[in-house]
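Data availability (excerpt). The following record was deposited with the supplementary files.
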Amino acid sequence: MSLKEFIKKLTEELNEFFKDLKFRCIADYKDSAIVLLQETEYGHRRILINFISRYDYVRIVISMGVRFDEVEYLFHQASEFSDRSAENTTTIGCSLTRFAKEVEEITISRDEKDKEIENVAAKVQNHYGDYIQSFFQKYDNLEIINKELNQDLEKVSNIKFNLALRAKTSIVIASLLKDENYKNIIEFYRGKLEKLADGFYLPNFEKLVTVLENRKD
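Predicted structure:
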């Protein structure tokens, strides 16, 4: 069984479970992935299942993301994403194994994929009930996210690991929530980005700061 056929069959199997939870299951053959989307009043929740082929096995990597439309709208006023890409970005995201360190990554034999469809589907469903649902419930509002990103700026965050992206997302959320430390958050990340990649990301950050300063509530 080819990887494309495996993804097709697994998507069909997962759809039987996730459709009752209002998730759309989408097979992405180009990127060897399955995308599960659940619309929310503030944006959407996303489960991404990536398939990475190795010599004699396939790694199956699960990650979760949450999109807040109002955050992403402001974020992309100062980004270089295409309009199409900007519509699909998530505000926060995390791999399942980073969120729940006790979870082992799923691997299957490249030569026996046809025997693993039901097994993999069952594991994904169990992970949803045991961990993924908890992630979505935990990060269901901007106040919780703001606390995690902006209360301790030096602390590495699993939900926004990339520093340049975290800097921009953090100041957008702080601006929306009128965080009393908003100015300090800007200065903190300004200092960090000055030193990162010889300041490569700083102009884009400063452009966003201007966008936020000119924003009308």
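Summary of structural features: The first helix runs from residue 3 to 18.
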